[in-house]
Design goal:
This protein is 50% helix and 19% strand. The strands form two sheets. Strands 1, 3, 6, 8, 9, 10 and 11 form a seven-stranded antiparallel β-sheet that branches. It has a four-stranded antiparallel β-sheet with strand order 5-4-2-7, with no helix packed on it. A hairpin with a 4-residue loop joins strand 9 and strand 10. The radius of gyration is 62 Å and the shape is rod-shaped.
């Protein structure tokens, strides 16, 4: 405490008291000072913390939702699960009446068997056609060779007939000359009538021989023409056989290919029918928990109709809706701490991916700000945070 001395006042002076003035020095409360320092340190710490961390309460745990729908039309005969049941992959869920699809599968099996039998029957036709083509070709070649031989014989006969005709004509000319000479001698009465008649008969007979040989030549010439026509016909048949044989083989091969295609189509139809039949037994594609069950025994369902949903619980992540002003220095790979209210525990994780659009823009009815009545609202961006594996109470 500081004490200050002052001059004594005159007696009875109202401005100067008769007693000395005393001043006491103020002392600072240590508790208040400590509280101020503590608050200051907390503020500095919070400032430093807020520069390196961002947090939000607008977050949720997400996972894959697997809708289970019927792939065929049918009637529900059994439902093996209920809401909130835990199922494993491959576990039966719903069964449909298979009788209609079984009949279709049996019909497809019959069509496949028939197509396969037709394919088996068409295979021998190809070698048979080839053998028949070779036989026809050999036969046609033999026919052509025979026709050529016949033509050659006919030409030889024609040449012989022509030679005989020439010979007969030469003899006729001789006999005709003798006849004319003996006719002159008869007119002169120098030869007997008997000799004249002999030479006349010989000339007349030789004329008949010439005529006969001429007819033989004409017949031989016609035979040659006939043999030439037959040869041309046989050669035409041979050429036709040579042209048609590959076409017949190609037709058989195309028929086999067609039967093969029919068999493959029938097989595909059979496999499709069997697949549809297998769809009557609906199983869980993944492990998880059943929810939104709508399937009931006796209900008629159509292809694509959802029957229930499986929440996949072995692949979870957190969707944290940070404000757009919090994302300036946030990027994939950064560590994160997640507090789950339902468990009252903290879990570790990391930023897996950053969003492309805001949550409001991805909603079913996004806002339209083109009306002129715009109000600035800080948007939230859904950031995906992947939880670290093998954490206690997480599996």
């Amino acid at each position: 405490m500081d004490v200050e001395s002052q001059k004594a006042p005159a007696a009875g002076d109202p401005e100067n008291g008769s007693e000395p003035a005393v001043r006491a020095a103020r002392r600072v409360n240590p508790a208040l000072l400590g509280a101020i320092l503590l608050l200051l340190a907390a503020g500095v710490g919070w400032y430093l913390y807020s520069r390196g961390y961002e947090e939000t309460d607008d977050a949720e745990v997400d996972g894959h939702l697997n809708p289970i729908a019927s792939r065929v039309d049918g009637t529900v005969t059994a439902v093996r699960v209920d809401d909130n049941d835990a199922v494993r992959a491959g576990q039966p869920l719903v069964e449909l009446d298979p009788r209609d699809l079984q009949a279709q599968a049996d019909q497809a099996q019959a069509e496949f068997d028939r197509a396969r039998a037709q394919l088996g029957a068409s295979h021998p036709n190809l070698p048979i056609t080839r053998i028949g083509n070779r036989a026809d070709l050999a036969s046609q070649q033999a026919e052509v060779a025979g026709a050529e031989a016949a033509l050659s014989g006919a030409r030889q006969d024609l040449a012989g007939a022509q030679a005989k005709l020439k010979e007969a004509q030469a003899v006729y000319q001789r006999d005709e000359a003798d006849f004319r000479r003996y006719r002159t001698l008869r007119d002169k009465q120098e030869v007997s009538a008997a000799d004249f008649d002999q030479y006349r008969s010989a000339a007349e007979a030789q004329a008949q021989t010439v005529a006969s040989n001429g007819s033989a030549v004409d017949a031989a010439r016609k035979t040659v023409e006939q043999r030439e026509a037959e040869l041309a016909e046989q050669r035409s048949k041979l050429a036709q056989t040579l042209r048609s044989a590959p076409l017949q083989v190609a037709i058989r091969e195309a028929d086999i290919q067609s039967q093969q295609a029919n068999t493959e189509a029938a097989q595909a139809a059979l496999e499709k029918a069997r697949l549809k039949l297998s769809y009557c037994r609906i199983v869980a594609p993944v492990a998880g928990v059943v929810t939104q069950r709508s399937a009931e025994v006796g209900a008629r369902v159509s292809a694509g109709q959802q029957l229930l949903m499986i929440v996949q619980i072995d692949d979870l992540w957190v969707t944290a809706n940070f404000k757009e002003t919090q994302l300036a220095r946030m990027h994939p790979g950064q560590r994160a701490k997640i507090h789950v209210d339902a468990l009252g525990e903290d879990f570790s994780g990391f930023v897996e991916s950053m969003p492309a659009i805001t949550g409001s823009r991805a909603s079913v009815l996004p806002p339209e700000n083109a009306t002129g009545n715009f109000v600035k609202v800080i948007q939230r961006m859904p950031v995906r945070i992947r939880l670290d594996k093998n954490q206690k109470d997480l599996e």
